[in-house]
Structures are given as C-alpha cells and as structure tokens.
C-alpha cells in the first residue's frame, strides 16, 4: 500500500474507534497479520485482522504521527498526537512494545471536546455523593482514589476538583500527563527531561499559597512523604494510588515504607472504584438473581431480596453486547480509631475487619444496589468486584 492508502486506513481505524466510544485501540502483531481490537465499555472487542504488510506500515504510520522513531522496533516508545476528527478534539496517547512476534501498539483515545461529568452527573447513590462531597470540604488531609488502570480514578478526581469553590480557594494539580484542562485549576505536567518531577513541582506549589493540591499518583515513598507533609501543613490533597481495595490502599502505603503514625495523621478517606457496564436500555430484560454469584443472605441483609434484577440480551443499539456505557461502583473507607489501631499493627486483614465494623460497604455490595435497580447485571458486578473482600 502507498502512503496515502496507509494514511486513509489509519484515519478509518481512528474514526471507527471514536464512533464506537472505544477508550483504546490495540494493534497486535501475530502470525497471520495484525490483530485489531477496540476496548469498548472496558471490554476488548475483536475487529477484522489486517494483512501483515499493511499492519506493519500502519504501526509505522502511527509512530510517525506521535513523533516516535519509526525505524526503532526493539524498544518501547511512548508519544501523543492531537487530532481533529469531525468536530471532536481527540488526544491519542500512543505506546509501542516489542514482543516475540513483532511490535504491539496501543492508542488511548481522549475526547477533549467532551464535557467532563460533574459529581452530580455521575449517577452516584445519594449517600455516596454526600460522603464524597464531605471529603471535598475537608480543610486538610489526604483523600486517596484507588483502583486499577482504567477504573475512572482520574475522572472522579477531576469531578471532585470541579466541585470545589475555586473562586475562594487556590487549587493546583501535578499530573503525568494532564488529560483535560480544568477551569480554575493551575495544572502542572510532569516533565522529567525538563527537571519537572512530582517532588520538585510539589515544593514549588507550596510557595504558591495553595489550598487544595491534586497529586496525580503516589508511585513511591518520596511522593508519599511529600503528600503527607503537604497534608500535615494544612492542605487538602487529592491523589491516586494503585490498590485493589480501600483497606488495601492503607496497607500499600505501609508497604512503601510510610510510618503508620503518618498514615493515621494524614489520610482522611479512601475511595476505591471500579467501572461496571450499564445494561442497554433498548434490550435488557428482567431476570431472577443468580444465587451462585451471591454470598449467603446478602440480599436479605441489604434489603434487596425483592428487587427486580435484569440481564443483557443484545441488539443493534449495543452492537449485540447487551451493554452500553458504564457506571462507577465504590467502597469508601473513612478511618476511625479502630481502623487507625489496625494500621499501627500493619495487618491488612485487621484493617479490613475494622473498616467493615465501621460500616464500610464493599464494592460488591455497592454494585448490588445498581444491579437491583436494573442499571447493570449481577454477572457484571461479580466480574468487576472480583477482588473485593468478603466477611
């Protein structure tokens, strides 16, 4: 294929991904060609395989778009490119990885022309919304947002920042990278090559008279200690941490080397989040609760034993999947004295047990409320909350 044909084919793939509401486009070299998959509503969906020669040229073209070295195929590369696709301002974050059969390329799509949802628009339960807003109103301390990659942590933190009274307080962020521009927030992108690291940016922000600071992610002990120092000197810190559960986030800080008393003095709340697929409203149908997916007595304990559950069917509107769109489920840990005592002991099981005694609903229980309202399916909740802890 010539250059113009490759350019057109790449544009078609990006347009397909955008029209399908895909978050990621995967190109994976295999023996019979390049496999194309789109991640739609959190699940990869296979597209027609591209012949080997065309696939190789496509990967090369995407690398050139992102100002990467197209001739280097033996090392990982990362880049980004901004595009205007039919009125949409798309930001593609492109990463390549050498594998046994050739290069693998993933392009993450961010629609910068789309409006970010506010907390009120995220479809949260009333009590969840009230708790998160209470955390946003704290005068100081650390609020952690946890979950795996792609679980909506950044979207939640952006919504929390937008819920602040940004006219009366100075709000800053340190991000890697800055995904969306937020009005009223002074955003700083981490650029190690230019000497702008999390730690250096944080120290500079402390000289800017801040009230609220979003630290994109705690990745190491140094960032954790700086976040604690900022919290203990009277600032409210929103930050992310990779952990499977809310209690596990506290244990993760301990495992990084943060002293237990510093964790207790600084952390005011932990929000663990997952995304579940929403049932397609055009084709979903009523269904009985599948007892094999439920712990004994959980529906009765939560007052959901007479709820009307639903299941996916599949139609043209949802491309036969039975789902369209996603909704977040949460578990929120507000450390009390018993949780803090458990943190001092360092046992994850003790922290989890203390959190449950303090009334923390786990991810599965929160998801059940959405399933009972017919918003998602019980099987989808079980899939998304597979890592949650049972009593």
Could you please describe the fold and organization of this structure?
The chain contains 13 helices and 15 strands. It is of the alpha/beta class and 391 residues long. The strands form three sheets. Strands 9-8-10-11-7-12-15 form a seven-stranded mixed beta sheet, with helices on both faces. Helix 12 runs antiparallel to helix 13 (378-384). The N and C termini lie far apart (59 Å). 38% of the residues are buried.
**Strand element count:** 15
Radius of gyration: 22 Å
List the strand order in the largest sheet.
9-8-10-11-7-12-15
Shape: globular
Let me know the average pLDDT. 92
Helix content: 25-40%
Quaternary: single chain
End-to-end separation: 59 Å
Query: How many alpha or pi helices?
Result: 13
Could you list the spans in which at least 5 consecutive residues all have pLDDT below 50? none
The biggest beta sheet reads: 7 strands, mixed
What share of residues are in beta strands? 25-35%
SSE order, one letter for each helix or strand: HEEEHEEEHEHEEHEHEHHEEHEEHHHH
Helix vs. strand class: alpha/beta
């Amino acid at each position: 294929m010539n250059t113009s044909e490759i350019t057109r084919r790449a544009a078609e793939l990006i347009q397909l991904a955008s029209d399908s509401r895909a978050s990621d486009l995967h190109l994976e070299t295999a023996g019979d060609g390049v496999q194309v998959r789109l991640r739609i509503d959190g699940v990869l969906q296979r597209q027609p395989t591209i012949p080997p020669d065309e696939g190789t040229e496509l990967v090369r073209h995407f690398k050139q778009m992102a100002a990467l070295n197209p001739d280097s195929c033996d090392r990982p590369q990362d880049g980004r490119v901004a595009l205007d696709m039919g009125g949409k301002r798309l930001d593609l974050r492109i990463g390549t990885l050498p594998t046994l059969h050739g290069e693998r390329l993933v392009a993450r799509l961010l629609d910068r022309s789309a409006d970010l949802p506010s907390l009120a628009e995220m479809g949260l339960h009333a009590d969840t919304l009230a708790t998160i807003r209470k955390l946003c109103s704290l005068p100081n301390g650390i609020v952690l947002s946890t979950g795996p990659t792609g679980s909506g942590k950044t979207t939640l933190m952006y919504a929390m920042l937008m819920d602040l009274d940004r006219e009366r307080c100075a709000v800053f962020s340190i991000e890697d990278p800055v995904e969306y521009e937020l009005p009223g927030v002074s955003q700083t992108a981490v650029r190690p090559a230019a000497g702008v690291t999390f730690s250096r940016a944080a120290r500079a922000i402390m000289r800017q008279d801040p009230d609220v600071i979003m630290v994109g992610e705690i990745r190491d002990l140094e960032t954790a200690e700086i976040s604690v120092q900022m919290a203990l000197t009277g600032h409210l810190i929103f930050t992310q941490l990779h952990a499977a559960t809310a209690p596990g986030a506290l244990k993760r800080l301990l495992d990084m080397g943060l002293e237990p008393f510093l964790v207790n003095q600084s952390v005011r709340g932990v929000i663990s989040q997952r995304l579940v697929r929403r049932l397609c409203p055009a084709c979903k149908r009523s269904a009985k609760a599948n007892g094999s997916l439920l712990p004994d007595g959980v529906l009765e304990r939560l007052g959901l034993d007479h709820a009307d559950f639903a299941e996916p069917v599949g139609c043209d509107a949802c491309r036969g999947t039975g789902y369209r769109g996603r909704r977040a489920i949460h578990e929120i840990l507000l450390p009390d004295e018993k949780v803090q005592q458990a943190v001092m002991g360092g046992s994850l099981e003790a922290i989890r047990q203390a959190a449950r005694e303090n009334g923390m609903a786990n991810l599965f229980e929160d998801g059940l409320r959405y399933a009972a309202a017919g918003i998602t399916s019980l099987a989808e909740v079980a899939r998304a909350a597979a890592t949650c802890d049972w009593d």
